Amino acid sequence: MRIPLSWLAEYVDVAPGSTPEDVHAVLVKVGLEEEEIHRFDISGPVVVGEVLDFVEEPQKNGKTIRWCQVRVAPDGRTAADGGDAVHGIVCGAGNFFRGDKVVVTLPGSVLPGPFPIAARKTYGHLSDGMIASARELGLGDEHNGILRLAELGLDAEPGTDAIALLGLDDAAVEVNVTPDRGYALSIRGIAREYAHSTGAAFRDPASAVQPVDGEGFRVVIDDASPIRGRVGASVFVTRAVRGIDPNAPTPAWMIARLVLAGIRSISLIVDVTNYVMLELGQPIHAYDLSTLAGGITVRRATPGETLETLDGQTRTLDAEDLLITDDSGPIGLAGVMGGATTEVGDGTTDVLIEAANFDPVSIARTARRHKLPSEASRRFERGVDPDVARAAAARVVQLLEQLGGGRADGLGSTQHAAPQGEPIFLPHGYVTQLVGVEFTDDEVRSTLAEIGGTIEQTDAGLFVTPPSWRPDLGDKADLAEEVARIVGYERIPSVLPVAPSGRGLTRAQQLRRQAATALAASGLTEVLVYPFVTAVQNDLFGSPVDQRVPAVRLTNALDASVPFLRTSLLPGLIETAKRNLSRGLTDLALYEIGLVFRPEGEVRGTADLPAGAALPSPEQLAQLHDGIPPQPRMVGALFTGDVTPKQPGQPAVAAGIADALAAVRTLQTALGVPLTVRQGAHKALHPGRTAEVLLNGEVVGYAGELLPQVAEEADLPRVVGALEVDLDALIEAAGADIQVGGISTFPAATQDLSLVVDVSVPAAEVLSAVVDGAGALLENAHIVDDYRGQGVQEGSKSLTFALRFRASDRTLTAAEASEAKLAGAAVAHERFGATVRE
Questions:
Q1: For residue 350, what is the domain's CATH number?
Q2: CA atoms within 13 A on the CB side of 603
Q3: Rounded to whole angstroms, how far apart are CA atoms 290 and 348?
Q4: Do 224 and 361 belong together in one domain?
């Protein structure tokens, strides 16, 4: 929320001489987060000028310029830049006339950009300054011509300071408003917070106008089936204003305030509605009264209905969308955006003003569903004061009468069915107990009265009814927080709590951190990915076989294109790699540790939730719990590009299955679990380059390379290493402690063993048989060769293993090592018919 300081000062006594930084500091004291400071960034002599005369001079490039004589100071006086009262200025615009008052930036001034102004020779003349457009002054986007003061309803003597005249000397402070404090999205709310912080006098702008009820305009609230027990519109106020001058300009002070607040000026009627929204926090919508067909009905959309909104888009509506309709059909998305058919245009003279209060949940869902955030929806979804609608409508009518020459004719309506706030019981001493700082009863009572609460005192405590603009105050803890906030957070001492003994990370948490640390230490980068995917991604990666997998579909997905919860981490890692590759990062080693959602059998929906003001029943909670699918924690990794870059004398080493298998070994070492791999198959991975990861004989994951087609569809390199393992299963199997044996001081005996087996026998299983048979003397074994060719019978292969033997109490003889080796070969022969190749 941006707050122009001159506007703020109208409703609260801002300390004289306060800078934007001072105002930020004051607002931070009551819990608002400071953001930026916004200024027009204009300095130097910028004055009102009068066009005395001009000569049009066609140029060779086809452009016509005007050589102008402009009075920039009264006769006989020196101009603000020290020059003559009349300046010669070259101007390329043609929308002004002799006698017009314009804005002249004299040499030495600086416009936003920064764009310094100096006398310069151009088109054969010495141009002594510049006649400015609205865009050059930062007042809007209009750049087709210069700014004529008559268009703003202004007149002033030549030489008058234009910065002050146009309100360009104002500044705005920006604060971040959290979702629970929607009242602060208004000058009214911020002025009240400034008063809380400083004790300055607050003047409520809603009390400055006298609401007058209108009659005769038909409004029907037709929400017989409210969403989640909440009626879509609880307040609906309309007022008609006729005879507005369509050529009436928006005054300069209003344009300046709107621009500082981040809203561009459009037309007087639209500017007034935006101005009142910012001032009071009540979104306002104006309809061209001549285009309305009958009265207004507020209802839910029917399937298949469409609406063309003000942005020119035709939108297909959802049954949950709340609509504003007339006899012709939908004319607006309630609380979000109006429709094109009743839009206020350049020729509008009669308008119907709408000030309503809509259900926050309904508005938030509609805005998200249609990807249509607006200033109105931003306020409605946080909660708007239901009691300010009549005052806001009256304020719009007042401004249109004053600035546009309109007149209120009494046509309108008023419906107010907003529920009254319920009293909250606050026991004596509760605030002190919760906050940990002593607060007297008088401090608590006066603070809650200051924020607008209605207080009834009893012997046991206070019954506090929150004000209508504070829907976020729902229980006694909220009231305690308000006391701490308003009295001052500085009353709360900064004390580092002492951690109780016996607390700390659980065993599972420690092992998860060990796994993450080990992967990061081996060169991988951890990423966090949104868990939303498509059905195709779930079916491809969620199961190793060709079948559809059960998946959780979100009822109200953030993005309709990815409505399912993931059953695998790999789709998210692929999207992350794709995004990084598009930004020039070609060598990637990524990993994620996160939950996947794997329903068992039919996916059951969750229970219907009660309204926001009610707690769910035990039965509803049980149904919600039953609808939660199993959520195992997985670890996934992805490798693209080069693991080792090309260097002089060394070729590049591309990523692939070897890196995925290396990550498996890293997890095995970090967690101390007996992982093994064997040839496997997965429909998303390359056949022949896929390994099953086994834990105690059970498959707990896969490592390999993506199918080239899958990689190509994701705009990834042809070879992409991938890994996904069930981390929960690994942690469950991890022992309490990792036992490390002693280091033997005796030398090792190394031998090679070549075995001939059928080509269908996995090498890993042969190696396992050799290890089992070689016994305790075998210290290390790994495969070094897989040979198929001359000297080996067709249909067979020769596997060569490097074996290292060592004893802890003696030096082994060659005979002992050979005996152990042959014992391993014997087990391999027994299991697979392996023979020793001589």
A1: 3.50.40.10
A2: 15
A3: 8
A4: yes
Q: Are residues 709 and 796 in the same domain?
A: no
Nearest to 287 by CA among 352, 337, 346, 332: 352
Cross-strand partners of 685: 706
Q: What tens digit of pLDDT does each residue of 99-129 get?
A: 999 999 999 999 988 899 999 999 999 999 9
| Residue 618: count of CB within 10 angstroms of its CB | 8
Residue type, 693: V
Residues in CB range of 446: below 8 A, 6 or more apart: none
Instruction: Determine contact, residues 379/392, Cβ cutoff 8 Å.
Output: no
Tell me the β-bridge partners of 784: none
CA distances from 749 to 629, 804, 821 (A): 53, 6, 11
- 205 cis-preceded (ω within 30 degrees of 0): no
Q: Helices 187-198 and 20-28: crossing angle, nearest 10°? A: 80
For residue 789, the enclosing domain spans 749-836
Domain end residue (candidates: 203, 223, 254): 203
Candidates 227, 220, 559, 558; CA nearest to 362 is 227
What span, in angstroms and rounded, lies between the C-alpha atoms of 128 and 116?
A: 13
CA nearest 740: which of 805, 811, 669? Answer: 669
Q: Is 114 helix (H, G, I), strand (E, B) or coil?
A: coil
Q: List the CATH number of the domain containing 536.
A: 3.30.930.10
Query: What distance in Å separates the CA atoms of residue 803 and residue 781, rounded to the nearest whole number?
Result: 5
Give the residue among 802, 793, 801 at the shortest CA–CA distance from 757: 793
Neighbours of 615 (CB within 10 A): 8
Q: Are residues 687 and 781 in the same domain?
A: no
Using one digit for the tens of pLDDT, what is the confidence trace for 3-37? 999 999 999 999 999 999 999 999 999 999 999 99
Q: What's the rounded Cα separation, in Å, for the pair 749 and 820?
A: 11
